[in-house]
Automatic annotation (TrEMBL):
Function description: Protein glucosyltransferase that catalyzes the transfer of glucose from UDP-glucose to a serine residue within the consensus sequence peptide C-X-N-T-X-G-S-F-X-C. Can also catalyze the transfer of xylose from UDP-xylose but less efficiently. Specifically targets extracellular EGF repeats of proteins such as NOTCH1, NOTCH3, FBN1, FBN2 and LTBP1. May regulate the transport of NOTCH1 and NOTCH3 to the plasma membrane and thereby the Notch signaling pathway.
Species of provenance: Panthera tigris altaica (Siberian tiger)
Gene (name only): POGLUT3
GO CC terms in record: endomembrane system
Name of the protein described by the UniProt record: Protein O-glucosyltransferase 3
Molecular function via GO: UDP-glucosyltransferase activity; UDP-xylosyltransferase activity
Length: 452
């Protein structure tokens, strides 16, 4: 067991050193530190993964030679727990304060405006009939005493592994409110009833919203899973993308770029425009499913690693079946994002502004070439928008912001329930995973199940 991990890395020609160790020399803990991520703007991301609880805390030293940099050493007061340690904070307000959760989330406020009260019995009567048929992709969850129970409605519910894992991760960190809700695992939002209709809309939880639906939006399964992968130290996630943004702005290829499946007709248009304007746009379809008859005419492009997208100055974001879930990744790069106008949105879109964080393009792409030309002729302004967008995305998509968002949705939902959640017939317990490689020592007094 090693108590101390050191990493050296270069920024230009400057040698830095990062040391992560337990605050107490008596505590020997295993900590894995992957290679630091150079964001090419003078900042680095250094990740670490713990395999044991640190009682007193961690000391993180950032050194230049033997001198401490900035406010180094940084102290994380203990106890500090690893990802799989089940030791929830029983005071949610204290937990939110520790995470510096935002006091307001405009998208959450907007989503819940349609639901001043949530009638669980009405949900129980209506949701299975309306959305739980054989082709359904809805899962019914109850969280009670910080334990998670579920039953699947319909046969297209395999993606429940993503909702399971984020709910379990949250429950390990904070005491969740008792709630009963239905999550839609399909692409499209489900609830299209208007507020003034009788019966009114039901608060279905979805990963993607639209202007003509009333679903309550959570971060997509992709963002949620990516955040958990980042915490496990896996490479292709929302953090690693920030350390692989390609050449500096001046050395990027001055073209717009797109690769993707044929999941929307405008994507086919992109390829045609690319053929006619190769000096402005490089677009290709990598897989045909919806428009197979077009493959012979438009050709099939080779798959390309996502990090290589950022060799290009401009990225075209066009919807897939719903919102394109690559958008947060594109925003975290240092290319200018040209975003198609869309009726679909993810949980963080409301915090982004056109012409400040991205360049908008019309739904039918009729102004795309004009916008690419504008970017080429206004390089400094294009670079500024790309940077503003990247910085905003970094802030919005940090792991702690995701947890804050989930918790806020559940809290708002719980406050509106008109009756107590119950474990319904057919529900099964979603058990916390065993992690034999990690040692969990919870310092909080855990109430027994009888007390709960």
């Amino acid at each position: 067991i090693v108590a101390l991990y050191i990493y050296f890395f270069l920024s230009g020609q400057t040698l830095f050193k990062v040391v992560i160790k337990s605050l107490s020399p008596k505590e020997l803990v295993r900590i894995h530190v992957p290679k630091p991520l150079d964001r090419n703007d003078g900042t680095f991301l250094v990740r670490y993964r713990m395999y044991e609880t640190v009682s007193e805390g961690l000391k993180i030293e950032v050194l230049y030679g033997d001198e401490h940099v900035a406010q180094s050493p940084y102290i994380l007061k203990g106890p500090v727990y690893h990802e799989y340690c089940e030791c929830p904070e029983e005071d949610p307000q204290a937990w939110q304060k520790t995470l510096s959760c935002p006091t307001e989330e405009p998208q959450i406020a907007k989503d819940f405006a349609s639901f001043p009260s949530i009638n669980l019995q009405q949900m129980l009567n209506e949701v299975p009939k309306r959305f739980g048929d054989e082709r359904g992709a809805v899962v019914h969850y109850t969280i009670l005493n910080n334990h998670i129970y579920r039953r699947s409605l319909g046969k297209y519910t395999d993606f429940k592994m993503f909702s399971d894992e984020i709910l379990l991760s949250l429950a390990r960190k904070v005491l969740l409110p008792d709630i009963e809700f239905y999550i839609n695992l399909g692409d499209w939002p489900l609830e299209h009833r208007k507020v003034n209709e009788t019966p009114g809309p039901l608060p279905i939880v979805s990963w993607c919203g639209s202007l003509d639906s009333r679903d309550i939006i959570l971060p997509t399964y992709d963002i949620s899973h990516s955040t958990l992968e980042a915490m496990r130290g896996v490479t292709n996630d929302l953090l690693s993308i920030q350390g692989n943004t390609g050449p500096s702005w001046i050395n990027k290829t001055e073209k717009a770029f797109f690769r993707g499946r044929d999941s929307r007709e405008e994507r086919l248009q992109l390829v045609q425009m690319s053929k006619e304007n190769p000096e402005l746009l490089d677009a290709g379809i990598t897989g045909y499913f919806f428009f197979q008859e077009k493959e012979k005419e438009l050709g099939k492009a080779k798959l390309i690693g996502f990090f290589d997208f950022f060799k290009y100055k401009y990225q075209v974001n066009v919807d897939g079946t719903v919102a394109a879930y690559r958008y947060p990744y594109l925003m975290l790069g240092d290319s200018l994002v040209l975003k198609q106008d869309s009726t679909y949105y993810e949980h963080f879109y409301m915090a982004l502004k056109p012409w400040k964080h991205y360049v908008p393009i019309k739904r039918n792409l009729s102004d795309l070439l004009e916008k690419i030309k504008w970017a080429k002729e206004n390089d400094e302004e294009a670079k500024k928008i790309a940077k503003e967008g990247q910085l905003r995305a970094r802030d919005l998509l940090q792991p702690h912001r995701l947890y804050c968002y989930y918790y806020r949705v559940f809290r708002e939902y719980a406050e509106r329930q008109s009756s107590k959640p119950e474990i319904r017939d057919g529900m099964e317990l979603v058990a916390q995973p065993d992690d034999d490689t990690s040692v969990c020592q919870c310092h909080r007094e855990r109430p027994s199940r009888e007390e709960l």
